[in-house]
Amino acid sequence: MSKVLFSIQYEIVPEKRDEYLKVIKELKNLLKAEGLESYTVYEVKGKAISFQELYTFTTMEAYEAFDDMNDERINILVDKISGMSVDKSTKYNTLVQLADE
After folding, report:
1. What pTM value is reported for the model?
2. Which of 50, 53, 63, 83 is most open to solvent, judged by the fewest CB atoms within 10 Å of its CB?
3. Are strands 4-11 and 50-57 parallel, antiparallel or unpaired?
4. What residue ranges in the chain does DSSP mark as E strands?
């Protein structure tokens, strides 16, 4: 079974940085799901307002199930992050691990 890496990259409005860091901390504490191996947030070196969230799933099925998950508090936090993001800065990427040959 192939692992799946899902990433979200975006910039935050500079004045919202402190609030963003608090929201991400809470989100990290809440994100627990079957098949979610890890959730990590990175800051782009040299860009204090540019971040990337990286989700690692054990399988494609786990990734798809996570996408269908409906947790009200997590949805609120994700909406807050969207509201702090610079318009048109968000990029999504889904990577599927190649099967061992």
Report:
1. 0.87
2. 83
3. antiparallel
4. 4-11, 36-43, 50-57, 91-96
